[in-house]
Amino acid sequence: MTKDKKIALADLRSQRWFGASGQPGNHKSYRTKQMGYxxxxxxGKPVIGILNTWSDLNSCHTHFPQRVEEVKRGIWQAGGFxxxxxxxxxxxTYVRPSTLIYRNLLAMDTEEILRSHPIDGAVLMGGCDxxxxxxxxxxxxxxxxxxxxxxGAMLSGHFRGRRNLxxxxxxxxxxxxxxxxxxxxxTWRAFGEGTARSPxxxxxxxxxxxxxxxxxxxxxxxxxxxxxxxxxxxxxxxASTAGRRIVEMVWEDLRPRDxxxxxxxxxxxxxxxxxxxxxxxxxxxxxxxxxxxxxxxLDDFSAAAEAVPVICNLQPSGxxxxxxxxxxxxxxxxxxxxxxxxxxxxxTVTGRTLxxxxxxxAPYDDEVIRPLSDxxxxxxxxxxxxxxLAPRGAVLKxxxxxxxxLQHTGPAIVFKNFKEMLAQIDNPDLDVTPDSVLVLxxxxxxxxxxxxxxxxxxxxxxxxxxxxxxxxxxxDARMSGTSYGTCILHVCPESRVxxxxxxxxxxxLISLDTEGRSLDLLISEEEFARRRAEWVPPPPHYERGYxxxxxxxxxxxxxxxxxxxxxxxxxxxxxEARFS
Length: 580
Hints:
By secondary structure, this protein is of the alpha/beta class. Helix content is about 35%, strand content about 15%. It is built from 21 helices and 14 strands. The protein has helices at about 15-20, 25-35, 40, 65-75, 100-115, 130-140, 170-180, 185-195, 205-215, 235-250, 255-260, 260-275, 280-290, 300-305, 320-325, 330-335, 355-360, 420-425, 460-465, 525-535, 545-555; strands at about 45-50, 80-85, 120-125, 145-150, 155-160, 160-165, 380-385, 390-395, 405-415, 435-440, 470-475, 485-490, 510-515, 520. It has an eight-stranded mixed β-sheet. A four-stranded parallel β-sheet has the order 2-1-3-4, with helices on both faces. Strands 5-6 form a two-stranded antiparallel sheet. Helix 4 links the parallel strand 1 and strand 2 (about 80-85). Helix 6 (about 130-140) packs parallel to helix 13. The longest helix is centred in the middle third of the chain and has 20 residues, at about 235-250. The relative contact order is 0.11.
């Protein structure tokens, strides 16, 4: 047990249930014994909730049943009482129409599971894209001691002698070759199977690895835990260590709001730039910060965009994969390279500072984790754009874009929605050239609904056959962190609520000036006003259910797409004691 015990047994939340006098306490005791536990198993011990986002339809988390047992082992060893609590599993591969809708539902699920049960501390088990921010958002709102156990990335992909095939990044390229007629369907399918070889999240620096890395920087994981491959034995060791540590954290009364500060988030943003992380990170970090009553905005990302170059040579912006990253020193090594840009006094769940936790870390392979003097890309991976087309902002993954398209003016090809885009994109009569700007409307938070990862619009087939592999693409959607290309995303406000994107017509000239951080529709103010006056809002997607709740309360991308009533400051009290 920790030597820094700050609270007594009577102070634990669980004692309001188990320690209550008379019938209420006795009722909880004999109902626990009903499950086969003895008094020695649970009495006088912190109750640790293990929130498990495993399901048979979440391929990233297939190893979680074993990891839960390892977490429990650590909890038992440290003198805690582990209880597994299944939480909503948001598997990126299978959930429709968008996992972002259910990120908020999982966050609410997490908060209310912890609030309604006799839980003193929480182990949060996630990794698949939305599970990381959702679990942390819920735990932040609840604010009891919590530690995050990341799922870890899958093994590197292999196919017919080719190595370093990235989940998503390599398969998008193979899909383009298939659509262009360069490979047959059998080869395309076999190639995809070769990129997904084990349990774990995508093996690129996609959204999953970006968000677990940033959770690590925020101090919510054991230091370096985010880099460990899912099937490495060290991952099992990390799980049991996290189980032991959460018991200590309960006695220390170390909570998320004690660990994570605005400085922690600024560290995360700088690290995001050095990683060339997923564009989804902007939405998730802002949402997470709001749950902690911390002010964070797109301006903070814009300021950090030039602070550090991209030094993480991982797909989709670089060459290597998460397995290589770990064996080159992992996140701790990367942080050691950019340490002068970090606030090293920030706390971690170990009770030690970030500076203490990266002391002695260094890269083992300068090709995977580059020195600042030899970066993969000379500036931060993400850039925030503003202009008359995105007055509240848009984002571009500059390090994964084509350099020749970063300054571009071209005519718009407008698709009113995703269905129209699918129907028209390969039409041989589509009046499109490599200079065109593909525009997708009605794909934002309320539009699609749920802001799906449609932002990497497919290149028209007739251009693929000519060898074109990138174009400027523009939408109020998101894109997978494994995606690449000159894709302008998160245009805000979205088109469905009357943002300027809704007013774009085919043939309009659109100007992208990455250096000047601007995105503009080149029409007159008078024409803007005329179109705005003629615009008619479309009907809602949902009349009832969670979809209606989401659509009525979701915030825009620049505010993190949380539900407005969940993002409010303040605390919700614990439930009152009752007789039974």
